[in-house]
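Whiteboard transcription, Tuesday session. T.W. wrote the structure tokens on the left side:
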């Protein structure tokens, strides 16, 4: 489908989404699944509008976005800084590669009990969990990006009399930017997931607690309204980072991924 224009691809994507919504409505209207568990999109939309009209949902939505962003930002700063330090040093990579491979597969949810033991059911625990889970994509991508810079480029930097910091800033970082930006998009998704999980466990005000309370009281329309907002959040943040990626990488030749 590479021969199709971008507007046409976007139109087809919208049509597929619309068809799925129509199918969802037909299934709900036919009663194939109890409305207690599967309300139609009309009822979910009505619950979403009502949540905004009463002023309840905007505050919860903002709370989730703030936790997601702060945890993601902390993970990004640590991941890029630490990844750059490890990536430019073969010695550091040799010493830390085993440790990183041992910790990397550890799911963030597995450290939640440890975080609760040390930090309690607090905002700090939620943010720490988000940052831990969102750290690894950025950290590993940064290490990979810095470690795969062609040695000839470093030789050029030395020939031009560039300092180590100048070499990192002007050579290593630009050549690693594609890996880093792709990882930032992935880590943002992880941060959103963990923000919701953390809100559910720690009873923090946010979409996670809204969805959990709706499920417990069988308010399926409110549950789906929260899920729709989460989908919108993920879509918008991904689109913003995608635009940022294109802007920062506009210097690259066309066709280079």
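and on the right, the sequence the group agreed on:
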């Amino acid at each position: 489908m590479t021969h199709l224009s971008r507007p046409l691809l976007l139109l087809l994507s919208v049509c597929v989404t619309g068809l799925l919504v129509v199918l969802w409505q037909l299934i709900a209207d036919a009663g194939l699944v109890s409305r207690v568990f599967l309300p139609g999109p009309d009822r979910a939309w009505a619950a979403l509008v009502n949540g905004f009209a009463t002023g309840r949902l905007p505050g919860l939505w903002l709370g989730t976005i703030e936790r997601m962003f702060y945890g993601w930002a902390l993970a990004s700063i640590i991941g890029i800084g630490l990844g750059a330090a490890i990536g430019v040093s073969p010695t550091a990579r040799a010493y830390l590669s085993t440790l990183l491979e041992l910790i990397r597969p550890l799911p963030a949810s597995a450290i939640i009990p440890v975080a609760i033991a040390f930090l309690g059911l607090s905002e700090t625990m939620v943010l720490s969990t988000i940052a831990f889970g969102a750290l690894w994509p950025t950290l590993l991508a940064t290490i990979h990006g810095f470690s795969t810079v062609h040695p000839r480029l470093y030789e050029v930097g030395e020939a031009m009399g560039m300092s180590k910091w100048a070499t990192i800033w002007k050579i290593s970082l630009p050549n690693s930017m594609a890996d880093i930006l792709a990882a930032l998009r992935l880590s943002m998704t992880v941060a959103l997931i963990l923000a919701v999980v953390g809100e559910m466990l720690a009873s923090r005000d946010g979409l996670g607690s809204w969805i959990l309370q709706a499920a417990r009281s069988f308010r399926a329309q409110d549950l789906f309204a929260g899920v729709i907002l989460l989908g919108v959040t993920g879509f918008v943040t991904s689109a913003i980072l995608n635009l940022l990626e294109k802007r920062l990488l506009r210097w690259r030749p066309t066709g280079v991924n």
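Someone added at the bottom: The first helix runs from residue 6 to 30.
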